[in-house]
Design goal:
Strand content: 25-35%
Keywords: ATP-binding, Kinase, Membrane, Nucleotide-binding, Transferase, Transmembrane, Transmembrane helix
CATH class of the largest domain: Mainly Beta
Distance between the termini: 42 Å
Shape: elongated
Radius of gyration: 27 Å
Protein name: Protein kinase domain-containing protein
Largest sheet: 6 strands, antiparallel
Number of domains: 3
GO molecular function, one term: ATP binding
Structural class: alpha+beta
CATH topology of the largest domain: Neuraminidase
Helix content: 10-25%
Length: 687
């Protein structure tokens, strides 16, 4: 199926098209094919998505529905940095549907049709980007089976492979991959597909060779014709690859070998395209050394003018709305200090965040050049991410870089979040909180403690994730610290009742102590409770200033205090009573909710410029350096928490009475809701 082929609004809905599929409103048509139609839709959270709706007659075929459901399940396993991420699926009005990320851009097919062959530089970027996508697809145990120019989108985040056809897991127990049904597109299928021989990942490599030759020459290397003509040429004919630059000439010929055993793998292609060396340093160094020029703003051929938004307005600090400003490193276009304005649907580089973008215009040839440079630059980002993903999954003895240290977009971690689940509305004036565990990749939250008559809140993982500490609000003047087993076994036990207010706790790194806000004659104090002997707490502070929100990492306990008039974040030595304080933040407004990164070097916190406004910021935890805002002024965020690998932040977003949990990468990308339900979910703890 030719999927997302247009930018903007697509084409209007036709008579008979549904206006709603499940919880998604349909806005326009994006494409149509043998399986059904693809629509531009809008989800309940306002996010634009692409929705594939299966034809009614196919929806009645139990065998097809089985394959379709397998496709959705399999596609969820593919890394999303080079493909359209699968978000949801279901059935509505007797028709199955699948929801994916909406990729704004133009298909390779349409681009070549409207503008002719690609320049050598852009061709190389597309070849690398598609090879990187195949690395991710094949690493997940899948075969695309229908790779063609219509299924490669040239977007602002680089080439993206979409529409997996009926891709199946290589080890699928159902055996559907080996049925006699032939699904694919004439001119792009490997000979073994036509001959009904064993299907392996090599069929995608053959399609890659056809696609790259087409991108350079504007025609399929086996010509044109009906299915029978093309089948004969694919099986018996020689391809015409034209004048391909090195090393693409050699790689395309190898990819188009009739014998699938002689073709390179996707990893082979990727390594050859980025220099042919096998060490991580060599591969990543090759990519980060590529500094493509930054293009002026202008329309990409085949797309029309950019709509109003971040691409056409000056940038003076963080943009309003859901976008963010990210300080890029040397691996991003423009080098260190370059600024990228990111929104959920587009990314626009600029070398000067305060300089307005040039207006649209210029000759078609000049606009074509702008589009090619822009896509080449975007490809650099995607390729770096793809190679990092490959390095993390390689089995040739290479040392993984680690999720936090790689240059590619980190996938959403599967590690569970602890949360407060509201049984009824009413927070904060009335509390009906239960301690729950939320799986971010499924958005499902389940209660860990079933005391439905209690007010439990602010859960915290123990360092080994085997226990949970939480605060229980008993009355207006009584609050208690409790501990329970994380697996729900055993009986929760109360540790101390000297907790002052609805405040959180913080485990020591060895899991033997917990920092709390204690009620004392001199006011609220940060104290350390030894779990085995809670009757003798160690008071870390002794002043009369208000304070709250302890966090613990290494030998430091962090908290906010009004010691200087406004709420600022400080740290103290965890083993010293009355020791000196280190001031971490120096903000003009109140700050709250400190949270350490797993390595203790970075602190996330919320700034509160107004009563109903809170935004997540990141800063070095030693008080040096410049803070960086992570979430925009259009959001209201509380209680940030790092993922266990340090690559994501989870935060409670929305009005206090009805919050949900969102996750965002520490570089400011990938913001998404990770909780679902009608009642509030808050107080997340990830690490």
């Amino acid at each position: 199926m030719d999927g997302q082929r247009r930018t903007g609004a697509g084409t209007p809905l036709r008579p008979g098209d549904p206006e709603q599929v499940g919880p998604y409103a349909l806005l326009a048509r994006l494409g149509e094919g043998g399986m059904g139609a693809v629509y531009l839709g809008r989800g309940p959270d306002g996010r634009q998505v692409a929705i594939k709706v299966v034809r009614a007659e196919l929806a009645q075929d139990a065998g097809f529905l089985t394959r379709f459901q397998d496709e959705v399940t399999n596609a969820r396993r593919v890394a999303s940095f080079c493909t359209a991420q699968v978000l949801d699926h279901g059935e509505s009005g007797g028709r199955a549907y699948m929801v994916t990320e909406y990729i704004e851009g133009v298909s390779l097919k349409d681009y070549v049709k409207q503008n002719g062959e690609l320049s050598p530089g852009m061709l190389h970027g597309v070849a690398v980007g598609v090879a990187a996508a195949l690395v991710a697809i094949h690493a997940a145990g899948l075969i695309h089976r229908d790779l063609k120019p219509a299924n490669v989108m040239l977007s602002f985040s680089g080439p993206r492979v979409i529409d997996f056809g009926i891709s199946q897991a290589l080890d699928a127990a159902s055996g559907l991959t080996m049925t006699g049904q032939l699904v694919g597109s004439p001119g792009w299928m490997a000979p073994e597909r036509i001959l009904r021989q064993q299907v392996t990942t090599a069929v995608d490599i053959f399609s890659w060779g056809c696609l790259v030759a087409y991108a350079r020459n504007g025609v399929n290397p086996f010509g044109t014709g009906d299915f029978s003509v093309m089948s004969a040429r694919l099986v018996h004919g020689d391809p015409e690859i034209g004048d391909l630059p090195a090393p693409l000439d050699r790689l395309v010929r190898a990819a188009l070998d009739k014998d699938p055993h002689n073709r390179p793998t996707a990893r082979d292609l990727l390594l050859a395209l980025v220099g042919g060396e096998t060490s991580e340093a060599a591969v990543l160094g090759k990519l980060t050394a590529w500094q493509p020029p930054i293009p002026p703003a202008g329309p990409v051929p085949g797309q029309g003018s950019f709509p109003p938004g971040p691409l056409s307005r000056p940038l003076s600090g963080p943009p309003e709305g859901p976008g963010h400003t990210v300080a890029a490193g040397s691996g991003m276009p423009g080098g260190p200090g370059h600024t990228v304005a990111v929104t959920p649907e587009r990314m626009a580089p600029t070398t000067n965040p305060t300089r307005p973008m040039p207006p649209d215009g210029g000759s078609p040839a000049r606009r074509r050049g702008r589009g090619r440079v822009l896509l080449a630059g975007a490809a650099a980002v995607v390729v770096a991410a793809a190679v990092t993903g490959w390095l993390l999954t390689r089995h040739d003895g290479g040392k993984p870089t680690g999720a936090a240290g790689g240059s590619g977009p980190a996938p959403l971690p599967k590690a569970g979040l602890l949360v407060r689940i509201d049984r009824q509305s009413g927070w904060p004036s009335r509390c009906y909180g239960s301690i729950g565990r939320l799986v971010p990749t499924t958005r499902v939250a389940a209660k860990v403690i079933s005391d439905d008559d209690k007010c439990d809140m602010l859960p915290r993982w123990s360092p080994d994730r085997k226990q949970i500490a939480f605060t229980r609000n008993v009355s207006a003047t009584v609050n208690e610290l409790w501990i329970t087993n994380a697996d729900g076994t055993g009986t929760p036990r109360m540790i101390t009742n000297i907790v002052d207010g609805r405040t959180r706790s913080a485990w020591s790194p060895d899991g033997k102590k917990i920092a709390i806000v204690a009620r004392t004659p001199s006011g609220r104090q940060i104290a350390v409770i030894t779990i085995a002997h809670p009757e003798t707490p160690l008071r870390l502070t002794g002043d009369g200033a208000d304070k709250d929100d302890p966090a613990w990492c290494g030998n430091r306990v962090a908290f906010w205090s009004k010691k200087s008039g406004t709420q600022q974040i400080y740290t103290v030595d965890a083993g010293t009573a009355g020791g000196p304080w280190t001031q971490v933040t120096h903000d003009d407004h109140d700050v709250n909710d400190p949270s350490f990164s797993p390595d203790c070097r970075t602190m996330a916190y919320t700034e509160q410029p107004a009563k109903d406004a809170r935004h997540v910021w990141l800063t070095p935890s030693d008080g040096t350096g410049t803070p960086r805002r992570l979430t925009s002024t259009a959001t209201r965020d509380m209680d940030p928490t790092f993922s266990p690998d340090g690559t994501w932040i989870a935060t409670a977003r929305g009005e206090t009475a009805h919050q949900s949990i969102w996750a965002i990468r520490v570089d400011g990308t990938g913001a998404m809701p990770v909780s679902a339900g009608d009642l509030g979910i808050a107080h997340p703890d990830w690490s």
